[in-house]
Amino acid sequence: MADEAPASTLPYPPIHLDKKFVALSDWDGTITNRDSNDYKRRAGNLEILSGTATFRDEFRKMLESVVENGHKFDECAEVLRQNITLDVGFKNFYNFCKANDIPVVIISSGMAPLIRAVLSKLIGDEEASQIEIIANDTIIHEDGTWEIKYRHPSSGYGHDKSQAILPYRRLATPPTIFFFGDGVSDMSAARHADVLFVKQKPGADNDLAAFCNREGIKHVLFEDFDRALGVVKKVVEGEMTVKDALAVGTA
Ligand SMILES: [Mg+2]
């Protein structure tokens, strides 16, 4: 039952074999900073958390209203490039992972072309082209309108992130899996990580933490990737077990 995988409309990159650690991270609001005062989205999130709506349908509705207001895809990409900022510690974290043979994979419920566009502005074209992204895609129509192409249209998540983690779990010698997330789109992945990091934004509600507390899923709260790196480093360097890391509670 738990292994019933939704069909994927998009390919996956090959999984990294024989790694001791992998770092999988949500993009929006985790690697990037997002305005948490998005009240319209907040109302949708509460419905998702309470189970009365799906992420897939709420997100599609939101995007449709953007298209209905006449915004072309390139314009949206440019607005995001101008406005999205990176978590203060992410570059450090990414460099540590690179130096220690830890693959970093972005697991997002957003659209890969937008993520790539923003990432190339934030960390440069070359680095941006190297980071793996498992996300949804975009369909751009001839009349200039566009829509999201969900990876898992049959899943209420649109992109069921657990499907990016489970192949690692099934390896004969699975790596230690670090997962970083902040919101309702990460709920499907939350229980499959070895060490789940939940991003905590000062003064904002935390939907993923609420979900984890309700479901009894142990996690580490972190404010930015510099803080998370402190814990990751200790686990990687053998100073701390996964269990110890989860017992810490806050990075
Ligand atoms: Mg997020």
Automatic annotation (TrEMBL):
It comes from Antrodiella citrinella. This is Uncharacterized protein. Gene3D superfamilies: 3.90.1470.20, HAD superfamily/HAD-like (3.40.50.1000). Keywords: Hydrolase. InterPro entries: HAD-like_hydrolase_phosphatase, HAD-like_sf, HAD_hydro_PyrdxlP_Pase-like, HAD_sf. One of its GO terms (molecular function) is phosphatase activity. Pfam families: HAD (PF12710). NCBIfam families: DKMTPPase-SF, HAD-SF-IB. It comes from the Eukaryota. The keyword Transferase does not apply.
